[in-house]
Design goal:
- By secondary structure, the chain is an alpha+beta fold.
- The protein has 3 domains: 172 residues, Beta-Lactamase (2-Layer Sandwich); 145 residues, Helix Hairpins, CATH 1.10.287.130; 93 residues, 2-Layer Sandwich (Heat Shock Protein 90).
- A 5-stranded antiparallel beta sheet has the order 2-1-5-4-3, with helices on one face. Strands 7-9-10 form a 3-stranded mixed beta sheet. A two-stranded antiparallel sheet has the order 6-8.
- A hairpin with a 4-residue loop joins strand 1 and strand 2.
- Helix 1 runs antiparallel to helix 4, helix 5 runs antiparallel to helix 6 and helix 7 runs parallel beside helix 9.
- The chain is elongated and about 190 Å long.
Length: 469
């Protein structure tokens, strides 16, 4: 809420609050002094009346006392007037109903001969002894004159003092506030002019400068703001030029990038087209090669059924083995062509996982026996054996892994582990690992795994064979 108060209001509050507090305190002191004057007036009035009528009573006969009291009621300050004897008994009364009807004799004797004030909450009572009076029987007796003043006169005087002084105080504060407000508005007028001019300044109008009738500190402020605007204008021009240069460089870079993109697009299209032609060529050649290879396999199988010498049978079996190996290579080439063309798909059928593992190990058993290696398969009990999948591709991958392990292992064993990792609803996550006791790969060589035509150690690759495809 403080943030919403204007500077004019803040200055006005800062000036008027202490002045108002001082004026109010001063008014309170004046009122208190006025109350003392009213109390003094009340005391003087009571003393004057008591002296006047105590003398009149002393000079009159007791039979005339009532007339004297009645005449005293013509005084505007008297509410009631009474005469008491020394025993405190009321002898004569005039006026309205008196607050005091009896006096304490002991208290009367303690007052002596002086005029006294008797405090009551709602009455102003004064009493004075009357000069000694000699009665008809030549006896001197003491009497007391009691006057009860009208409290309304003094109460009204107090209220009039409060109201009058309050009106004067608040009137003075109001006039002073108007005068200070006008002065503050005059002093802040240059600041308002600068604020209005600042609101008109924008990035498209940075050349405008502040012009006002400011004096003193406000004039220095105006100069500093103009200097700041000069710096902002200069920096804006420099920034504008920098942006323009950067935009020109960016446009030139965009043109260069677009030309490079066109060249890359053309090169990519040429590469894709060349790859497509290569894939089509390989697919066509593979199909062309499969026909004579199938014929060779057919003729070798027919020849093997005929009576042959041992040497002839070995030759024909070698031909059949080489033909089957070449047919497997052609099938791999066809698979790669399918993968590149995005036509490769898995054939999902029921299969027996245990049969696949042992079929692979049995097919590679001759190679392992030739190197003196032992093949071991561990299939954990929780592994589901009857599952759905692509048996051909699974066998192909497992054959590749086990054959690589045999190629790069000179002694020891090849271990195939099949374990259940996780089961989610009807889906099983099965892990198949192939472990060998070969030399293995370094961390640097592992970074080249699964890269086409890359092998870990070229010297070992030449010894073991393979292309790293």
């Amino acid at each position: 809420m403080i943030k919403t108060i204007s500077l004019h209001s803040r200055l006005l509050i800062a000036c008027m609050v202490p002045i108002s507090i001082l004026m109010i305190l001063f008014s309170i002191f004046v009122i208190l002094f006025r109350f003392q004057d009213i109390d003094s007036l009340k005391q003087d009035t009571a003393h004057t009346l008591l002296q006047k009528y105590s003398v009149a009573i002393a000079q009159s006969e007791p039979a005339q006392w009532q007339n004297v009291l009645t005449a005293a009621l013509n005084e505007k300050y008297i509410h009631s007037i009474d005469i008491f004897d020394r025993n405190g008994q009321k002898l004569h009364h005039a006026g309205l109903k008196a607050t005091l009807n009896v006096l304490d004799p002991v208290k009367l004797r303690s007052l002596g001969d002086k005029i006294s004030y008797l405090p009551y909450s709602d009455a102003e009572i004064f009493l004075s002894p009357i000069q000694s009076i000699v009665t008809s029987d030549n006896k001197q007796r003491a009497y007391w004159l009691v006057i009860e003043l009208q409290p309304s006169f003094f109460t009204i005087a107090r209220y009039e003092s409060i109201i009058g002084i309050s009106i004067i105080t608040f009137g003075f504060i109001s006039i002073l506030m108007l005068w200070i407000s006008s002065g503050i508005r005059y002093w802040l007028n240059p600041l308002h002019q600068m604020l209005e001019q600042l609101q008109q300044i924008n990035p498209q109008n940075l050349e405008k400068r502040l012009e006002s009738n400011a004096l003193g500190d406000l004039f220095l402020l105006e100069q500093q703001i103009n200097l700041l605007l000069n710096k902002i204008s200069d920096e804006h021009q420099e920034l504008k030029q920098s942006i323009q240069l950067a935009q020109e460089d960016l446009e030139a870079n965009i043109i260069t990038i677009e030309s490079h993109n066109i060249e890359l697009r053309l090169a990519r299209n040429a590469a894709v087209e060349g790859n497509r032609i290569k894939s089509a060529f390989l697919a066509n050649i593979s199909h062309e090669l499969r026909t004579p290879l199938n014929s060779i396999n057919g003729f070798t199988q027919l020849l093997l059924k005929m009576p042959l010498t041992l040497k002839q049978r070995d030759w024909i079996e070698s031909i059949e083995k080489s033909s089957n190996n070449l047919l497997a290579i052609i099938n791999d080439v066809l698979d790669f062509s399918k993968i590149e063309a995005g036509k490769f798909s898995l054939q999902i059928h029921p299969l027996n996982l245990e049969n696949i593992v042992f079929d692979v190990l049995e097919s590679l058993a001759p190679q392992a026996e030739n190197k003196g290696l032992e093949q071991v398969a561990f299939i954990y009990e929780d592994v589901p054996l009857h599952i759905k999948g692509d048996a051909l591709r699974l066998k192909q991958i497992l054959t590749n892994l086990v054959s690589n392990a045999i190629r790069f292992t000179n002694k020891g064993e090849i271990i195939v582990r099949v374990m259940l990792e996780e089961t989610r609803h009807e889906h099983h996550f099965i892990k198949i690992s192939v472990t060998d006791t070969g030399k293995g790969l370094s961390d640097n060589e592992k970074t080249h795994l699964f890269t086409a035509f890359q092998q870990g150690n070229p010297s070992l690759s030449r010894e073991a064979g393979g292309t790293g495809l």
